[in-house]
């Protein structure tokens, strides 16, 4: 049987923690940072857990 391939877009956007939670990065941090307060860019730097409704699909895309 052929092996399943990991979804290339998903592996760049999501990661799975040691405890099995799916984490994502927050939007609004890439461009125009000079106009945003430092407080906001620091807050956006933290990873967030993925919504519970999407976890099953993302894990499937990652082959987990």
Automatic annotation (TrEMBL):
Pfam families: Ribosomal_L35p (PF01632). Gene3D superfamilies: 4.10.410.60. InterPro entries: Ribosomal_bL35 (IPR001706), Ribosomal_bL35-like (IPR021137), Ribosomal_bL35_CS (IPR018265), Ribosomal_bL35_sf (IPR037229). One of its GO terms (cellular component) is ribosome. Keywords: Ribonucleoprotein, Ribosomal protein. The keyword Acyltransferase does not apply. PROSITE patterns: RIBOSOMAL_L35 (PS00936). HAMAP family: Ribosomal_bL35. Belongs to the bacterial ribosomal protein bL35 family. This is Large ribosomal subunit protein bL35.
């Amino acid at each position: 049987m052929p092996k399943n391939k990991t979804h290339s877009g998903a592996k760049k956007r999501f990661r799975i923690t040691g405890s099995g939670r799916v984490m994502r990065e927050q939007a609004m941090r890439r461009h125009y940072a000079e106009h945003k307060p430092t407080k906001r860019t620091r807050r956006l730097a933290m990873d967030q857990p993925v919504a519970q409704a999407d976890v099953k699909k993302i894990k499937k895309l990652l082959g987990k």
